[in-house]
């Protein structure tokens, strides 16, 4: 008998079928199944909606991967070490890296890179899906993120060194961008002073503080968050742009 | 019932031109062209339309306001809110979906300015 499991995913199904087949409980392909005598069987009882017999199906998490060679974006389910771009067939490393010392090489990965507080980028180029910068980086280093860049620690990188789609400022971090900052989503747990243009959601969490100017469609401020800024938030788009 | 717990209500079919002042809390669902000054909480309902400044201890906005908002404690903008004006408060809460054009001065972490020491030198 297959082992009972509360979570039903693809692997559980395959494993269960293999076990049942081993025990000879499955009919052979093409074999005739004997007719069942249903007269003695009681009618099935209606199960309540919250029955413990109802199993959950888990969908593997989907990630958006961007090919470094051709820029093509596609989705990946589950985890793997390496994949190939479905457009240009370029090999893409999907590994996760942790830097906790001096680092001066290039990293190209669709996974994540974490630069620990003891880590330091020295003339390094990081291209990754997600990056968490808790350590330091010199003027010659650069970070390019396809998804989230989280800035924490004491590092004060120049905005020109950073390319990201979404930005998160960690709690306790005080960051200042001199130039216009264009991002999709922005999440603030620390303090950010900048001229922000967002196409997604600007979220100021509890303890976060936004200073400067913010233009975008969506703003969310949690209680305990600060906002000392010129604000232009139009969920339906700028009416002045529509008129022009 | 004590007067502190009472809430004045201005209905959706009421239109006021002038200044509204109250010591307690107020709920406005109609139109107001003028200032609203309130000692308690001011709630601007979904149908509320205000052209003027609002001053209160705390302000909850669900409707439209063209004017500045000054709250001693808190400003709360619900997802249906439209605010054209500057806001100033100690605490702020903004739901996704609001339309807001103006300046904001909200710093919950700001240290209050200490009063001058009484034992100072006098000239």
Summarize the amount of helix of chain A as a percent range: under 10%
Largest sheet of chain A: 8 strands, parallel
- Counting helices, strands and paired strands, the structural category of chain A is mainly beta
* Count of the domains of chain B: 1
- This entry's quaternary arrangement is heterodimer
What value does the average pLDDT of chain B take?
87
Verbal overview:
The complex is a heterodimer of chains A (244) and B (123). Chain A is built from two helices and 25 strands. Chain A is mostly beta strands. Chain A has a domain at 180-244. The longest helix of chain A is centred in the first third of the chain and has 13 residues, at 10-22. Helix content of chain B is 0%, strand content 53%. Chain B has one domain (3-96). Chain B has strands at residues 7-10, 15-17, 20-22, 25-28, 31-33, 36-38, 41-44, 49-51, 54-61, 64-66, 69-77, 82-84, 87-89, 91-94, 99-106. Chain B is an all-beta fold. Chain A binds chain B through residues 201, 204, 207, 209, 218-236, and chain B through 74, 91-109. Strand 25 (226-233) of chain A pairs antiparallel with strand 15 (99-106) of chain B, so a sheet runs across the interface.
Short description:
The complex is a heterodimer of chains A (244) and B (123). Chain A is mainly beta and 244 residues long.
How are the SSEs placed, and which strands pair?
The complex is a heterodimer of chains A (244) and B (123).
Chain A: E1 7-8, H1 10-22, E2 56-57, E3 62-66, E4 73-77, E5 82-84, E6 91-93, E7 97-99, E8 102-103, E9 107-108, E10 112-115, E11 120-121, E12 125-128, E13 130-133, E14 136-137, E15 142-145, E16 148-151, E17 162-163, E18 166-169, E19 174-183, E20 186-188, E21 191-198, E22 201-204, E23 209-216, E24 218-221, E25 226-233, H2 239-243
Parallel strand pairs in A: 1-2, 7-10, 8-11, 9-12, 10-13, 11-14, 12-15, 13-16, 15-17, 16-18, 18-20, 19-21, 20-22, 21-23, 22-24, 23-25
Antiparallel strand pairs in A: 3-4, 5-6
Chain B: E1 7-10, E2 15-17, E3 20-22, E4 25-28, E5 31-33, E6 36-38, E7 41-44, E8 49-51, E9 54-61, E10 64-66, E11 69-77, E12 82-84, E13 87-89, E14 91-94, E15 99-106
Parallel strand pairs in B: 1-4, 2-5, 3-6, 4-7, 5-8, 6-9, 7-9, 8-10, 9-11, 10-12, 11-13, 11-14, 12-15, 13-15
């Amino acid at each position: 008998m297959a082992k009972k499991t509360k979570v039903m995913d693809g692997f559980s199904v395959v494993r269960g079928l293999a076990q049942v087949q081993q025990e000879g409980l499955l009919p052979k392909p093409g074999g005739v199944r004997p007719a069942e005598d249903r007269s003695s069987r009681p009618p099935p009882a209606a199960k309540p909606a919250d029955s413990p017999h109802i199993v959950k199906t888990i969908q593997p998490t989907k990630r958006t991967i961007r090919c470094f060679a051709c820029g093509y974006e596609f989705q990946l389910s589950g985890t793997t070490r390496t994949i190939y771009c479905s457009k240009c067939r370029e090999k893409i490393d999907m590994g996760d890296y942790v830097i906790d010392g001096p680092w001066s090489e290039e990293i190209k990965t669709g996974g994540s890179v974490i630069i620990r507080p003891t880590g330091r980028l020295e003339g390094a180029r990081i291209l990754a899906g997600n990056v968490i910068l808790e350590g330091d980086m010199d003027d010659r280093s650069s970070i390019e993120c396809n998804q989230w860049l989280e800035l924490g620690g004491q590092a004060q990188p120049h905005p020109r060194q950073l390319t990201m789609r979404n930005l998160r400022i960690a709690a306790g971090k005080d960051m200042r961008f001199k130039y216009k900052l264009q991002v999709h989503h922005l999440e603030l747990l620390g303090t950010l002073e900048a001229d922000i243009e967002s196409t997604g959601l600007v979220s100021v969490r509890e303890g976060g503080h936004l200073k400067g100017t913010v233009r975008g469609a969506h703003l969310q401020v949690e209680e305990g968050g600060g906002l000392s800024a010129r604000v232009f938030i139009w969920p339906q788009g700028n009416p002045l742009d529509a008129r022009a | 019932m004590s007067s502190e717990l009472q809430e004045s209500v201005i209905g959706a079919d009421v239109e006021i031109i002038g200044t509204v002042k109250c010591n307690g809390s107020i709920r406005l669902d109609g139109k107001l062209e003028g200032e609203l000054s309130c000692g308690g909480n001011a709630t601007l309902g979904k149908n509320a339309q205000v052209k003027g400044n609002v001053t209160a201890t705390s302000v909850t906005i669900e409707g439209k306001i063209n004017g500045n908002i000054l709250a001693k404690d808190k400003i709360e903008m619900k997802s249906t809110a439209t605010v054209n004006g500057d806001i100033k408060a100690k605490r702020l809460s903004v739901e996704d979906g609001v339309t807001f054009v103006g300046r904001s001065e909200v710093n919950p972490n700001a240290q209050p300015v200490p009063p001058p020491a009484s034992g100072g030198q006098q000239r």
